[in-house]
Design goal:
Elements lengths: L6 H24 L10 H23 L10 H25 L27 H16 L3 H29 L1 H9 L10
Length: about 190
C-alpha cells in the first residue's frame, strides 16, 4: 500500500478531528457545548448517513484493492491534493466566521446570530460544500467505489440537512433570513443549488 492510499483515512481523521476540536474550543470559550446531539428524527437519519459516509471514507485504504481503482493519474492526484488544501482551509475559515455560533445540529433556542460574513457572504452552507470538496479530493487521489459512494451519500445528506436547517433558520430570523436566502446560493455563490 502506498502512502497515497492512506489519504482518505488521514483526511477523514483530520476533518472530524477538526469538528471535535472546534466543539471543544467553543465549550472552552463559552462554557456551553455547541449543539452537537441529534434533536429531531431527521437528525438521526442524517447521522446514520454521515456515519456510513465517514466509515467508507476512512476505511477505504483497507477495503480497496489498488488494482480496483477507476483510474490513476498524477495530474488528478495533484489536483486532488490542491482541492484538499482548499477544502480544509475553507472549512477553518467557516469555523472562524461562525465563531461560537457553530453547531452540528440546529438548536433554535441557542441560535441567536445570523452569520452572513466570510464564506457565508457567498453561500449559505459552505461547510457542506467544502466537506464535499475534501471527499472529492480524496476520491481523485484514491478513485474507488467506497469514496464514490461517500460522495453520493454526502450529496444527498447535505441537501436534506441544508433544507432542514433553512426552515429552522427561517423561523428564527424571519425576513432577514429570507432576504439572505434570495441573494445567496445554498452551496455555491450562484443560486443554482
Amino acid at each position: 500500500m502506498t502512502y497515497l492510499f492512506l489519504v482518505p483515512f488521514v483526511t477523514a481523521c483530520l476533518y472530524w478531528g477538526g469538528v471535535i476540536a472546534n466543539a471543544f474550543l467553543i465549550k472552552r470559550r463559552t462554557g456551553d457545548a455547541p449543539s452537537i446531539r441529534p434533536k429531531q428524527n431527521l437528525d438521526y437519519v442524517l447521522w446514520l448517513a454521515w456515519a456510513v459516509m465517514i466509515g467508507l471514507w476512512a476505511a477505504s485504504p483497507w477495503i480497496v484493492d489498488p488494482e480496483d481503482l477507476f483510474f490513476t493519474s498524477r495530474v488528478l492526484t495533484a489536483l486532488g491534493g490542491l482541492i484538499l488544501v482548499a477544502g480544509f482551509s475553507g472549512t477553518w475559515w467557516c469555523y472562524i466566521a461562525l465563531g461560537n455560533a457553530w453547531a452540528i445540529s440546529v438548536n433554535e433556542g441557542q441560535t441567536n446570530k445570523l452569520i452572513t460574513t466570510g464564506p457565508y457572504r457567498w453561500a449559505r452552507h459552505p461547510i457542506y460544500s467544502l466537506q464535499w470538496l475534501i471527499v472529492l479530493g480524496s476520491f481523485l487521489i484514491v478513485p474507488s467505489i467506497p469514496l464514490l459512494l461517500s460522495l453520493v451519500i454526502l450529496t444527498f445528506a447535505m441537501q436534506w440537512k441544508a433544507r432542514y436547517e433553512e426552515v429552522a433558520l427561517g423561523r428564527v430570523f424571519g425576513e432577514d433570513y429570507e432576504a439572505y436566502s434570495r441573494t445567496t446560493g445554498r452551496f455555491v455563490p450562484f443560486r443554482c443549488c
